[in-house]
Design a protein that fits this description.
The chain is mainly alpha-helical and 277 residues long. It has helices at residues 11-30, 34-58, 65-86, 92-113, 127-166, 179-211, 221-243, 247-266.
Length: 277
């Protein structure tokens, strides 16, 4: 019986790689040199390889909290690599990698404290349910990526706006994109996340009654927090396009939306074993 080369990959493998990449990026900001960036990208790429291997070997269920956290962290890790290369002069990784590490850390804590929820109770699904369930999961995952990008852009926007008010010299702080580019990034993330969340929630509302009894599921923390996230994004769309609220206020709402996203990811899903929270 052959042993998979991915069998020995653990959370620590890619978490430590991401941590080293983050520390190297911080060192690059403090003591600018080209070698820091190259070393950081190597560690970051190594973390993504190990992260991918872990997902392929263990196949964590997206319906379980630790699975959804790991999948979102993986997509954001790819986003980190793209942003670091595309925005070479900015401290992109200093903002993205802490979020990636936080998601990986939360997934590890969940595995250690609630191992019984790491399997997926989908044996009673028909093939059609599995297909539509997968589409539902992908839509919500991509919507979560949009929420995360909106959060990152909002944090950088608020920091950059504060610097401009304080008249801080650009050379003396961590380099960040301009307010205009950050506001555009936030707007695009909102435009992508809202329809994906809407479609994903609509599809999930159709699947839930057919796959499970309704008792207890409609009022579960998972569904309530996800619905709350959608309502916050609906408010964001209204305030941006109908009321034209200043970007600074929208940034704070985007940060609130990310908090609701974390709550939704940590809540047990009705499709996961033990997911009746």
């Amino acid at each position: 019986m052959s042993v998979s080369p991915f069998q020995g990959v653990t959370h620590a493998c890619f978490a430590l790689s991401y941590l080293c990449a983050l520390l190297l990026e911080i060192a690059r900001v403090l003591w600018p040199a080209r070698g820091w960036r190259v070393a950081s990208l190597l560690f970051g790429a190594g973390g993504i390889v190990a992260h991918t291997a872990y997902l392929l070997y263990n196949q964590p269920p997206p319906a379980a909290p630790y699975g959804s956290l790991l999948l979102l962290a993986w997509v954001l890790a790819l986003f980190y690599i793209y942003g670091t290369v595309h925005h070479a002069k900015q401290a992109w990784a200093v903002f993205v990698l802490p979020v990636v590490l936080g998601l990986v850390g939360l997934s590890l804590v969940w595995v250690m404290t609630a191992p019984e929820t790491t399997s997926w109770s989908a044996t009673e699904w028909t093939a059609a349910h599995r297909i539509w369930g997968a589409i539902h999961g992908v839509m919500l995952l991509l919507g979560a990526v949009g929420v995360s990008v909106s959060f990152l852009a909002s944090v950088m926007y608020l920091m950059q706006a504060r610097r401009l008010r304080k008249k801080v010299l650009p050379d003396s702080v961590v380099p960040i994109l301009s307010l205009e580019r950050l506001e555009t990034m936030n707007r695009r993330a909102l435009n992508v996340a809202f329809p994906l969340l809407t479609a994903g929630l609509f599809l999930g509302s159709l699947l839930l009654p057919e796959a499970y009894r309704l008792e207890g599921h409609w009022l579960s923390l998972k569904i309530l927090s996800t619905a709350g996230l959608w309502l916050v994004f609906l408010l964001l769309v209204y305030l941006r396009y109908a009321v034209h609220v200043p970007p600074r206020r929208l940034a704070w709402l985007s940060i609130l939306a990310f908090g609701l996203l974390l709550l939704a990811l940590l809540a047990s899903h009705p499709f996961a074993v033990g997911g009746t929270a």
